[in-house]
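Lay summary. Proteins are chains of building blocks that fold into shapes, and those shapes determine what they do. In this project we predict the shape from the chain. Here is one chain we studied, written as its sequence of building blocks.
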Amino acid sequence: MKANRLSKLSLAIGLSVATTSALASPQAFMSARSFAMGGTGVAVAHPSAAPSANPAMMAAEQHGWADDFGLMLPSVNARAADEEEVIDQVDDIQDQIEQFEDLKFSNQADAQAKARQLVDNLEAFDRDTMRANAGLGLGLAIPSNSLSFGFFANANLTATVRGELDENDLDLLNDIANGVRPPATTDLDAELNSRGRILASAVAEAGISIAHSFMLSNGHALQLGVSPKYVQLQTFQYTEEISDFEDDDFDSDEYETDKSGFNLDIGAAYAFGAENQWNAGVVVKNLIPMELDSAQNHPTEEKYTLELNPMVTAGIAHKSDYHVITAEVDLTKKEAFGYEDDTQWLALGAEFDAWRYAQLRAGVRHNLASNDDNDGIEEDTQFTAGLGLNIIGVRVDIGALYSSADVGAALELGTSF
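And here is the predicted shape, written in a compact code that computers can read:
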């Protein structure tokens, strides 16, 4: 029943993103280039990624081969953190319950041994957490000397799975293991109350971007951009006793809440230096605060609130025809939803370009808000790398991510001219 639980959950997450709305994202969407450069982009985004990263960058000076049209279709990324192999633990415990039920009438000694094994496994299962992130996006940009226009729709969904031990289960199983209670009088399917819980969030957004470049009296250019967008918040909370836990049920309507409305991103970019080799950028996302409470369908469930608050990120970059080096920082903190870590990223990224045809990328980012008291998997320092290839007008970008908790990858197809 159970050998492919993690792949089933990942598929369920992906399908939920695709069917929830046009597209969705709890944290800011990252193109594959941004993914490979430590999540940076506010001061270096190419036109197709600018509507999601910083709309002002659509009007910024780009390479000559990327300043007339940009298309990202599609861009996908995924991350997973599952050191304790929570889904596999659920599988093992469900198997042991079935084995106990098969043995309780025919072999009392083996049934007692199975109860003792369940004690160990349930204790190990308690508060173990896995997290999966899936992202999907597209973008279109048409830069010009007057007004630049773009369209974007992007998606990220975060889902966490956690084990929750009921202390009464240990008393029951210890009584069976020690011969105090005959196995044949016990129905573990009905009497065990330890649980698995899935808590997930998504924020769907799709919109347009408009940007304009202003020439200042000092000879440098200032770009301003705005992205009005439609946003849909969603939460999913599914809790079930471990014997009946099915991770692909988490997105059923009864476990979901949703809310939608209009919102706004604004951004600015400024090029300076003797040859405009420096670029600074700042973006404010989600100017209108929104929030949504999760569903409560189980007696043990708490109400969690998904908050979409204004997020401010600033960055600076140095660039030439052959390199980009950038740094950026979140000036505001994103509060965690459920079993997640608060996040406030400080990031460095670099790209080295071989005559337009190939790009080598690397990055690192550190979570300034990470702490040991978070209620989920810690997000601390992440290392990234990637490669871009331009083949007969088609751009292929790949990225990879690694940390002490996470592994991830990104892939993007597109074109620019």
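What the prediction tells us: Residues 362 and 385 are 4 Å apart (CA to CA).
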